[in-house]
Give the backbone structure.
Amino acid sequence: MTNDHSIAASTGFLLSKIGQTTTNLFAEKLAPLGLRPKHCGLLAAVAGLPSASQQDLGSAMSLVPSAIVSIIDDLETARAIRRTQDVVDRRRHSIELTEKGRSLLKRVSKLAHEVDDQVLASLSAAERAALHSILVRVALDAGILQGDQQG
Amino acid sequence: MTNDHSIAASTGFLLSKIGQTTTNLFAEKLAPLGLRPKHCGLLAAVAGLPSASQQDLGSAMSLVPSAIVSIIDDLETARAIRRTQDVVDRRRHSIELTEKGRSLLKRVSKLAHEVDDQVLASLSAAERAALHSILVRVALDAGILQGDQQG
DNA sequence: TATTGTTATACTCTATAACTATA
DNA sequence: TATAGTTATAGAGTATAACAATA
């Protein structure tokens, strides 16, 4: 039926499908907190780029400025981050985690690792480690992670 | 900054991000053909499940019936698939690839493998093979692939 | 003039619910 | 009464363009 040249045999197809499944699983776990995966992506980006501007975060996450605004609005309403107007360039807003944001980040990180345990349940510890280190390489190469974020 | 307990250090986070990037890249390559990734997912599902009903395809792709209808409408308009009313149960429609659909599937499969080459450019052949076989395991476990589709 | 962030808007994706035709 | 497919509709996600404040 399928073979080496089919779509289903491409690694990218598997990455797309598994990535979507993983996102959905994470979204379910996040729902009781009133958060969505995009909010966690931003929290992670803020943690990795302290005092970044909204545009800095936008390029780190490959999102357009208008998309960043709505995510930041949500997280500011939840008191997880804080906008501070830059004193030298008053057009810019520095985004920083609040204490509440830091504790929220810990909670959602725990949920993310629970998702790992579910999605990767059938892998041995060695396979999990191999998968992770290969994915870090791919992510660094694609500019998804910065050099200090491979954890 | 980040550490073993951060979101960015979770394998699921990487799978989500890389999966999204891969999908976007595939979508760009597909655009000149007037297709989107979802159409290719359906073509692949039809190839893997010949003469399936729309509901069969829906469960294979984890999509609700109404979502399947619009994808099938598009592909039928493009003459890539054919709806045939089941003779024993006239509520059901068997979906089959046309000759045009088969050749389209070949073209998009080639594009999918081009995406692989881009996304996985920094990996050795051995790493690519290791990644692929681990992802097949994860996908089978998550019910994303059927047993005969690992290519 | 150019840039940062914002608003308004549009398009796609996905899901739910009501509907039809068949069983 | 239940099921396969369809339609209508609504919500979330993501992009573009016009705009205000500031440089």
Summary: DSSP finds six helices and three strands in chain A. Chain A touches chain B through 65 residues (CB under 8 Å). The mean pLDDT of chain A is 94. The radius of gyration of chain A is 18 Å.
